[in-house]
Amino acid sequence: MYGADPWDRPTVYAPPRRQRGGYLLAAVAVLVAGGGAMALVAPDGDRLAAAPVAAPGPGSFAFVQEQLGTPVTYDPCEPIRYVVNDALAPAGGAGLLAEALATVSGATGLVFEDSGSTDEPADPDRPPRDVLRHGLGASPVLVAWTTPEQVPDLEGGVVGVAGSVAEGVGGSAMRYVSGTVYLDAADLAGILQRPDGADQVRAIITHELGHLVGLDHVDDPGELMYAQNVGRTELGPGDRQGLAALGSGSCG
Fold first, then answer.
1. Which CATH architecture has domain 18-246?
2. Short-list 177, 143, 224, CA closest to 65
3. In this structure, are residues 239 and 61 in contact, taking their beta carbons and an 8 Å threshold?
4. Of 79, 103, 126, 160, which is the most exposed, with the fewest CB atoms less than 10 Å away?
5. What pTM value is reported for the model?
């Protein structure tokens, strides 16, 4: 989750959502500092985009879920399909979402595939499998501009909440298969009225997409995934190391 504008009132990030449904491992946060980025390199032959290489150096990152010492990831050989409920989106929101998606895609090598708009409402208990619309396949990620009434986690100073569902693959390996990104439309519209509002909202969406692909909070104010909103608007060095690791999982 991402807290609201720090100039309005003190806020903190809440942990990323762990959705119901699927088979979830217990979350194990791994903090890496001082350039100890995990080296996870998948074969390039079947990837949709090249695996990024983040420069080693000072920085901190943490993963939402781990298995056998490596982070749970999305499949880099399959696109992350997403749909957007933009009925409440503020002016300019679509462009900022596109820019945030491009940032996370570039940092991970994961490919996001726009599957169009939807009228599906935000649902805190959304299942990972969409039987009605997609047979038994995984539901696309739902990005929804919504309200605290629909998503109680957005109450108070929180303006965004995101997370993914992991399921077992091949008997033991875990893989993210779907997720949600819920954005408080009214609060973000208010932030957009500030002189640097577009940068702040873009950062908020990028932070939530970081949770979607598997980054957890860190205690380092030099990172966008810091547990408090201190006005940072760009990915930090640890953010990039963590995102590169999350994009370097194995295929299949």
1. 3-Layer(aba) Sandwich (3.40)
2. 177
3. yes
4. 79
5. 0.84
